[in-house]
Every structure is written in C-alpha cells, then in structure tokens.
C-alpha cells in the first residue's frame, strides 16, 4: 500500500469528530441509563460535580437539575459535543480535555462517568485514580456498556474481517475493550471505598429493523470502523452490516427487532 492513502486515512481519522445529531437520535434511551445511575448515587453535601465524557450534555443537564447549588463541570474532547452541551446547559462549565489524562484542580464531591470510561484502554486504572480525586465521602458513579459479545458487535467484527478493508479494521476489532467480570471490579474497588454498589442491567430497545440498529451504532460503536473508511467503503460496509443484522435478529410481529444492551454500573463512596 502506498503512503498517500495511509496518510489520508490517518488524517481522516484524526479530523473525524463525534456527530451529536446521530448520537441524540436515541436520546431518551441513552439518557435512561444516566438516570438509573444517578438514582443510585449516595446522598451527601455536593458542591463540585464533574461529568466525564459529557458528550452532548444530556447527563450534565440531569446533574444540574439534581444539584442546583453545585458547580457542574463537563469534560469532553469533542468540539461538536461540547458545542451542543454548552447550549443545552448554560449554567454548567465545559472543558475540552481527554478524560484519560484529566485530573481536577481540587477534590470532587461527585465524579460521574456515563458511557465513557470503556473507550479507554486502562479504564480499571483510571477508576482507581478517579477515586483518589474525591474528597472523603465523595462519590464516583460509572456506567459502561457491556455489549462486546452481543449479536450487534459480533456482526461488526465479522464484517470488519470480511472485506477489502480487513487489514485496516481487524486491528480495531481486536482493540475493542472487553469488560471483566463483576468480581474483578469488586475486588479492585472495594478496598478503596466505604460503600460499593455494582450491578448490571440488560436494556431491551425495540428498533425499526436492521436499519434502526445501524442508526443506533452509527453514533457510537461503529465509529472506530467507519472513521477508517472512505465514503464508498462506508456504504459497502454498512450494507454488509445490515445483511448480518438481518440474519442475526428476528423481526417481531410488529416489524421491530429487539436490541439487547447490557450495561455495567458502579456507585462508589470514598
């Protein structure tokens, strides 16, 4: 392969930003997990709240409503997402920063990370660091999708491995983070907390056939693959992905397919 196409792909991947419009097509479904996480946060006096990987601000808005007297700070590295978040919750402060390298200027009362930490290769180490950033009695609340083994993601990996793009996409497929068992996280975090609550919920989302599943993941899980493809390759990749989904998911009598979406939750108090 010549250097020029590789350079073009690298440049395209570096400049591709998150698309808030795609992500927010399923805002109610995505925000439901944030609501469920927030409902399990132990109460304490709260003056400073950080929303890590705040995205378009749907979780930040929930935090601002729940803690109206606190300073709410959203952290994200996407210009597109931050622009939407600032317009949505003008009372909050938003900072462009990679959450993998973030550290607060002063101890936090609450660090909230909804569907963000699983993107990082060392999310276990990051969670222990985040606990160290809390004041005594402070809380860490984390939610991570746990769907690597679901049909939707198995289909992504199969399409990535079966096409002219395989040399580019297979490393992406192999690098997707797999969450560990509950016991692993408990044994890692329990010695660092005064209280620990860990649970998993499997959400079931009725979607409009394979097209609905594609729309869902175009705004999230498909991005690492699509970012490495040109426009024509994206069309072909998505067509093959739809075909795999049609084989994997049975249509219900009303024409819907049921997307299983397991999510792992942590509500910790230092």
TrEMBL record:
Pfam families annotated for this entry? Methyltransf_31
Q: Does the keyword Repeat apply?
A: no
Keyword Transferase tagged: yes
Tell me the InterPro entries matching this sequence: Methyltranfer_dom, SAM-dependent_MTases_sf, Trans_acon_MeTrfase_C
Give all residue intervals belonging to the Methyltransferase domain.
Answer: 48-154
GO terms of molecular function = trans-aconitate 2-methyltransferase activity
The molecule here is called Trans-aconitate 2-methyltransferase
Listed under GO biological process in this entry are: methylation
Keywords (A to Z) from UniProt:
Methyltransferase, Transferase
> Could you say which EC number(s) this protein's record lists?
2.1.1.144
User: What superkingdom does the record give?
Assistant: Bacteria
Q: Which PANTHER family match?
A: TRANS-ACONITATE 2-METHYLTRANSFERASE, TRANS-ACONITATE 2-METHYLTRANSFERASE-RELATED
Q: What class of enzyme is it?
A: transferase
């Amino acid at each position: 392969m010549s250097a020029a196409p590789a350079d073009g792909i690298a440049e395209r991947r570096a400049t591709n930003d998150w698309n808030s419009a795609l992500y927010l097509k399923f805002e109610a479904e995505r925000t439901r997990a944030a609501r469920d996480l927030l409902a399990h946060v132990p109460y304490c006096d709260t003056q400073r709240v950080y929303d890590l990987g705040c995205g378009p601000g749907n979780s930040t808005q929930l935090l601002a409503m729940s803690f109206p007297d606190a300073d709410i700070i959203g952290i994200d590295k996407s210009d597109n997402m931050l622009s939407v978040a600032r317009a949505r919750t003008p009372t909050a402060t938003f900072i462009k920063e990679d959450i993998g390298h973030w550290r607060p200027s002063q101890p936090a009362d609450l660090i909230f990370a909804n569907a963000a930490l699983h993107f990082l290769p060392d999310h276990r180490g990051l969670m222990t660091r985040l606990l160290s950033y809390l004041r005594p009695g402070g809380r860490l609340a984390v939610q991570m999708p746990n769907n690597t083994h679901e049909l939707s993601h198995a289909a992504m990996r199969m399409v990535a491995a079966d096409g002219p793009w395989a040399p580019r996409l297979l490393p992406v497929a192999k690098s997707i983070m797999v969450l560990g068992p509950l016991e692993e996280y408990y044994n890692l975090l329990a010695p660092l907390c005064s209280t620990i609550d860990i649970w998993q919920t499997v959400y079931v989302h009725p979607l409009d056939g394979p097209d609905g599943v594609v729309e869902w993941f175009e705004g999230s899980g498909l991005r690492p693959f699509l970012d490495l493809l040109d426009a024509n390759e994206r069309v072909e990749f998505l067509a093959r992905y739809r075909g795999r989904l049609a084989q994997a998911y049975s249509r219900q009598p009303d024409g819907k397919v049921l997307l299983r979406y397991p999510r792992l939750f942590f509500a910790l108090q230092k």
